[in-house]
Specification:
36% of the residues lie in helices and 15% in strands. It is elongated. β6, α9 and β7 form a beta-alpha-beta unit. The strands form two sheets. The protein has an eight-stranded parallel beta sheet with strand order 3-2-1-8-7-6-5-4. It has 340 residues and is an alpha/beta fold. The protein folds into two domains: 258 residues, Aldolase class I (TIM Barrel, Alpha-Beta Barrel); 67 residues, Type Iii Antifreeze Protein Isoform Hplc 12 (Alpha-Beta Complex), CATH 3.90.1210. α1 packs parallel to α5, α1 packs parallel to α11 and α7 crosses α8.
Length: 340
C-alpha cells in the first residue's frame, strides 16, 4: 500500500508576506506533510474588476470592502518568490507546489518542473485551461468541488483527448464551502467517483477539524488536501476555515496511524501481537467440586474459567459423561489425560 499523499494547502494564507510563506513551509515540514502548496495567479487573468467576493470571503474579511480583484491583487505570489520558496522547502524535506489559476501561470509553473499539477475546483469547466494543463503530460490531481458527475466526465474526456491516461489522474471529492457543513460532505460520493472512473481517489477538505479527512483515508482516499494557516485569527479569505499547525500535525499523525490499521491482508486471524494474550483472555473447563476416581462428569461438575490453556469449552459436550481416572480436587483445570 502506498502512503497517502498529504497536501497542506497554504494557498493565499501567506497574506502577501514572504516571511509568512516560509513559516507556513516550516509548519508543514514540522507536521510531516508531503507537500506544501500555494496558489499562483495573475489577478488580471483570473477575475474581472467587477467580480464580487464570494460570501465566505466577505465574511472572513469583515465585509465586502474590496472587490475580488482588489482582494486577490494583494495575495499574488511573485514569480521570484516561487524559486526561493521551492529551495526553502527542499531544505525542509517537503515538496513545494503551487496551483496555477490561469494559462500564463501554468506556463510559468511548468518551467519549475513540478512533480504534478493540481486542478482547482473552479477550473473543472474551463476547457482551454484543461486542454493546456493536459498537454504538459504531467500527472494531474483534479478537485471536483461544485461538480456533477457529468462535469467530471467532460473534464476527463478532455484530459484523455489531450494525451493523459487514467493512471496519470487522481480525482478528489470536494465541497467548495468554507467551512463545509458536515451534512454536506457526502463522503460516499468519493467512492462513486472511484467506481465511475476507475482512478485513484482522494479528498480535498474544507470542514473544520480533522475528522473527515481521517475518515476519507479509512474509506480509501489516496490523497488528502487540507488548508492550513499559522493562526485562524489572521485576516484573510481562507484563514478561518484552515487548520492551525498543531491541528495539522495531529491530522498527519492520525492519517499515518489509519494507514497502518487498514493495510492488512483482510484475512481474519490472530495477529502476532495478540497471540500472547490468548491464554490469559480465554477460558478452559475446570471442576466446580472434588471428584472421586470413577465419577461420571455432569454439567454441574464443571466451571468455565480462565486461563485458556486447558480443554476448550467448545468441547464440553465431549467431556460430559466421561469418567475421571483419579481423584480430582475442586477448581482443577481439567485435562484430557484426567479422563477415560
Amino acid at each position: 500500500m502506498k502512503s497517502v499523499l498529504i497536501i497542506a494547502e497554504a494557498g493565499v494564507n501567506h497574506n502577501g508576506d514572504l516571511a509568512i510563506a516560509k513559516q507556513l513551509i516550516d509548519a508543514g515540514a514540522l507536521a510531516k506533510v508531503d507537500v506544501v502548496k500555494f496558489q499562483t495567479f495573475k489577478t488580471e487573468k483570473l477575475v474581472s474588476k467587477k467580480a464580487q467576493q464570494a460570501a465566505y470571503q466577505s465574511k472572513n474579511l469583515g465585509g465586502p470592502s474590496d472587490s475580488q480583484f482588489e482582494m486577490l491583487k494583494k495575495l499574488e505570489l511573485p514569480e521570484d518568490w516561487h524559486h526561493e520558496l521551492k529551495a526553502y522547502a527542499e531544505q525542509k524535506n517537503v515538496v513545494f507546489l503551487s496551483t496555477g489559476f490561469d494559462l500564463d501561470s501554468l506556463d510559468f509553473l511548468q518551467t519549475m518542473d513540478p512533480p504534478f499539477f493540481k486542478v482547482p475546483s473552479g477550473e473543472i469547466t474551463n476547457k482551454p485551461y484543461l486542454m493546456h494543463i493536459a498537454r504538459f503530460a504531467k500527472p494531474i490531481i483534479l478537485s471536483t468541488g461544485m461538480s456533477t458527475m457529468d462535469e467530471i466526465k467532460e473534464a476527463m474526456a478532455i484530459f484523455h483527448e489531450n494525451g493523459l491516461s487514467k493512471a496519470q489522474i487522481k480525482i478528489l471529492h470536494c465541497n467548495t464551502e468554507y467551512p463545509t457543513p458536515f451534512t454536506d460532505v457526502n463522503l460516499k460520493a468519493m467512492l462513486s467517483i472511484q467506481k465511475e472512473f476507475k482512478v485513484d481517489i482522494g479528498y480535498s477538505d474544507h470542514t473544520l477539524g480533522i475528522e473527515v479527512p481521517i475518515a476519507a483515508v479509512a474509506m480509501g482516499a489516496t490523497v488528502i488536501e487540507k488548508h492550513f494557516t499559522l493562526s485562524r485569527e489572521m485576516k484573510g479569505p481562507d484563514h478561518a476555515a484552515s487548520l492551525e499547525p498543531h491541528e495539522l500535525t495531529a491530522m498527519v499523525k492520525a492519517i499515518r496511524n489509519i494507514e497502518k490499521a487498514i493495510e492488512g491482508d483482510g484475512e481474519k486471524k490472530p495477529s502476532a501481537s495478540e497471540l500472547k494474550n490468548k491464554t490469559a483472555a480465554r477460558k478452559s473447563i475446570h471442576l466446580s467440586n472434588p471428584l472421586e476416581k470413577g465419577a461420571t462428569l455432569t454439567i454441574q461438575d464443571l466451571d468455565i474459567k480462565r486461563p485458556g490453556d486447558g480443554i476448550n469449552p467448545m468441547k464440553i459436550d465431549a467431556v460430559i459423561g466421561k469418567k475421571v481416572n483419579k481423584p480430582l480436587d475442586e477448581g482443577l483445570k481439567l485435562k484430557w489425560e484426567d479422563l477415560d
